[in-house]
Structure formats: C-alpha cells, structure tokens
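re: ur question from yesterday

yeah so i grabbed the chain u mentioned. its 177 aa long if i counted rite. heres the sequnce exactly as i have it in my notes:
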Amino acid sequence: MKTRSLILTALFAALTAVGAFLKIPFPLSAITLQFFFTAMAGTLLGKKYGALSQAVYVLLGLVGVPIFALGGGFSYIFQPTFGFLLGLIPAAWVIGALAKRPLTFRRSALAMLAGLAVLYAIGVPYMALIANAYLGKGLTFWQVLKNGMLIYLPGDMLKIAAGSALSCAVTRRVPDL
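ran it thru and got these structure tokens back, copy pasting raw so excuse formatting
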C-alpha cells in the first residue's frame, strides 16, 4: 500500500507540473490546471500524500527543474505567483482532510472549495507583498484582489466541478484508492 501511495504521489507531482504548462495568460498570472491536479491529489490520495505530492512539485521547481509556469529555481520565490505555489501544499492537505469516504460530488466539491480558499488566502497576500514591496508596482487592495483572485474564480469553479465529478467516478471504479 505504501509503495502504491508513493507512486501516486509522484504521479500527481508530475501531473501538477504538466498542469503548469496548460495555461491561458492574464496580466499578473495565468489560468493553469495546477489547482485541478492539486484538488485531485487531495481527494484521491488523502491529506498526507496529497500534500506530499504538492511539496515534491514545489521543491523540484525550487531546485531548478523548470516545472513552474515561468521556469524554476530558487529565485522564483520573487515571482508574485509563488505564493500560489506554496499554497498548493496546504490546499491539498485541507482537501484531503475534508474529502471523506464514501466520496460524493457535494463532499468533494466542498472540500475543493475549502482548499481553494486556503490557496487564495496564501497566494493573494503573497502576490501583494511581492508586487508592491519587491517590484514596486503600487497596486491597490482592489487591483490585487481582482488580478489575483476574482478573474480566476469562474475557471476555478469549473475545475472544482470537473474535479469533483472525476474523483467520484475514480473512487467508484477503484474503491480502495
């Protein structure tokens, strides 16, 4: 069981990396599928291995593997979007903690919504800090909220709906996952 969990952990780290390159660009960030795979990792692997998969993804990017949307390396911590990458780890943990079995669409969607709230609670303030304190952009609270969260919410709701449906279908087919 542990070997399978570690293999799935590595798989979801890789899927999250692939999700970084499936993107639609926006002014300060881009819509990617990273959160989709984070949410799937949390619901399917649980809090421990779901969070571990995202930690592996972030650590690989920080050591220089170019798997983030704009590359990789330790200097990526100075990108306004790095807070969202950090937020993937606790987001997966929260999703995994809340997505109890038997998994239902509603339970899965609510868990993913809670994980998304954690992601934004970490990512948006980090974006404001780097954009204003480090890059000197002088963005207002409203500009940060709009550019860091509000424009992405419709896409995030679609990711949650698709992720909930898919994770429920997977757990029905593979009950011991």
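noticed a couple things. The longest helix spans residues 105-134. also Helices lie at 2-21, 34-62, 82-98, 105-134, 141-148, 153-173.
anyway ttyl
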